[in-house]
Amino acid sequence: MPITGILGTHAQLSWLDRALEAMASTGLDDGSKAEIALLLNGYVFWSARLRFQVPQEALEVIPSALDMSHYPYLASAVAEGIFEDGSTPEDDFAFGLERVLDGVAALIAARGAVG
Predict the structure, then answer these.
(1) Domain that holds residue 75
(2) Is 3 part of a structural domain of the chain?
(3) Concatenated DSSP letters for 55-111?
(4) Residues 42-56: pLDDT tens digits?
């Protein structure tokens, strides 16, 4: 009988088991630990997908011919140079991962867990 669950391979079950192990002493309930593991996996997957879908030689993040009048806040941010800060994809990944992990740390602290 084939396994039809979302996490049906040895590799998928193994990384989830290791993530639960890594969070064993956090004091979080198993449901929260599993959600955190899936959140981290989703962030890494999204980052990898973006990295491979956007060509390294892409000159523009947002096409200059696009009418930005429909996106006033984005237009203002683009005018301020949000995509021209000199950061590398690695810098961007690290920034995002740090924010995710800051949130996890805040959750652990809020629940009064020991870690």
Answers:
(1) 10-110
(2) no
(3) -TT---SS-TTS-GGG-HHHHHHHHTTTT-S---HHHHHHHHHHHHHHHHHHHHHHT
(4) 999 999 998 888 776
